[in-house]
Design goal:
The protein is mainly α. It is 56% helix and 11% strand. The chain has one domain: Cytochrome P450 (Cytochrome p450, Orthogonal Bundle). The chain has eleven helices and eight strands. The strands form four sheets. The protein has a two-stranded antiparallel sheet. A two-stranded antiparallel sheet has the order 3-6. Strands 4-5 form a two-stranded antiparallel sheet. Helix 2 packs antiparallel against helix 3 and helix 3 packs across helix 5 (92-123). The chain is globular.
Amino acid sequence: MQGAWLGWPPHTEEALRHWTARNHRATLARYREALDIVATEFDDAMRQVLHERREQSESTRANNRLTASTDAPADVISQLILEHIDGVPLSDAEIISILRNWTIGELGTMSACTGIIVGHLAENPILQQELRESPEGSPDAIDEILRMHAPLVANRRVATHDVQLGSRTIAADDRVTVMWTSANRDENRFGTPDNHQPERNANVNLLHGRGIGVGVPPLVSHRWHNYSAWVDRDKCCINRRGHRVTR
């Protein structure tokens, strides 16, 4: 899913899988030297991908098949290569930084989403059937499941200026932790947070963030579309032990 969205070449899939495993091991061990090594490996691999993509684009232009940026491949890597900020194209370092953030962060998030959604549907066969009968409700239903059981627990941030939050004053440069799980289960906002109410909660669900930090809609779209197809398999049900049951 992520490879198709970002535009990874097929030959990078296995290398990225092994790189992710090494990165997780180094992170768990808090081994800074190993983290620096795997970070360098990722940067080198991404530079090669960017080089190949530019060569491909130049070759296509030479054959008069690529005449404008709007004719370029629609994947994210191609869009980042063509992106300009204030008339200046993104540097390789900037593109690699973006791809590193999306790769490391999103792999874990998507894995968590998969487990949460499958687990919740296994515990709620009535909801499974409802989504089969009304698949158009899948996007909101999945967002509501992930509101109830957060795939991303918290983010750490530094305040840029003084702010009053309720009875608490947060000063500029204070380090804060944003607990998304707590925010999305606030009884004052959601009433009974364990109740599955997608229509009621859609407008206040913080699953994808707010403001400049809002989540990426294309990836969300791919996610719910794939789960809708899975739920709609012919007379297939997932029971509480996670087993497929044909009825």
